[in-house]
Amino acid sequence: MLQELFGTSKPVIGVIHLLPLPGSYRFDGQMEPIFKRAEQEAAALATGGVHGIIIENFFDAPFTKSRVDTACACALSLVTKRIMAIANVPIGINVLRNDGLSAMAIAATTGAQFIRVNVLTGAMVTDQGIIEGQAQELLLYRRMLGSQHQIKILADVMVKHASPLTPDADIKQMAKDTVLRAMADGIVISGIATGSAPNQDDLVKVREALPDTPIFIGSGTTIENLPRLLSVANGVIVASSLKRQGILENPVDLDKVRTLVSAVKKSAGS
């Protein structure tokens, strides 16, 4: 999947955190600033050499735990098409907090190649309440849209800012369920919160459970921990460490993108 989709065995996927969208509490009624910043960040990520880009409604917090407002999905579609005109890399959609159905619809209608789903299977306790996976509904929806072989599903295992309902949950078994029962095409392992790296022992356990499944680091990747993380994982999804001054609200820093991509290539021996 990695070579086919991203053209490399160690992909770097940059993230565009969209300004508040229609339907969210913080939307200010103006779409043009959203387009402008998204296009600037897409240009920086593509110029810096990333192998893919995920677009997500990060600044829509507080998030809904189920379906987003129709206006949000429409805005995401418009932004996605604008970004595709600038960045010639695979595009992914992540509709927060956990709207995989809208993400799939946006991807199918815009031509995006993959989506990220925070909770594909099982249940997690989050700041939005208890979120349950909808793997069956999402897979059937992908088939209905005629996109079964085009749009890949990257699913989080023990997603950040969440806790499993069972305190003694086994990350190995949860990872296996996500791939073997919920049919994810790849999995994402993160730390406990935005900007925090995953536990290395957990990462190794997941790799042992799924030796042939693409594993992405979903948070906390830095130049310093990159060799350790990529000794187990296949790729990284990066947002926070690519921002100017490392501040989430700031735009993407082109020099940081280039530095990280170069470090990944060096780590991969290419």
* Overall strand count: 11
The CATH architecture category equals: Alpha-Beta Barrel
The CATH C-level name is Alpha Beta
Largest sheet, in brief, is: 8 strands, parallel, barrel
Elements, N to C (H/E): HEHEHEHEEEHEEHEHEHEH
* Cα shape: globular
Assign the CATH superfamily.
FMN-linked oxidoreductases
The class by helix and strand makeup works out as alpha/beta
Question: What is the percentage of strand-forming residues?
Answer: 15-25%
Low-confidence stretches: none
Reported by name, the CATH topology is TIM Barrel
Radius of gyration: 17 Å
Counted up, domains total 1
Give the count of helical stretches.
Answer: 9
N- to C-terminal distance: 19 Å
Physical arrangement of strands within the biggest beta sheet: 1-2-3-4-7-9-10-11
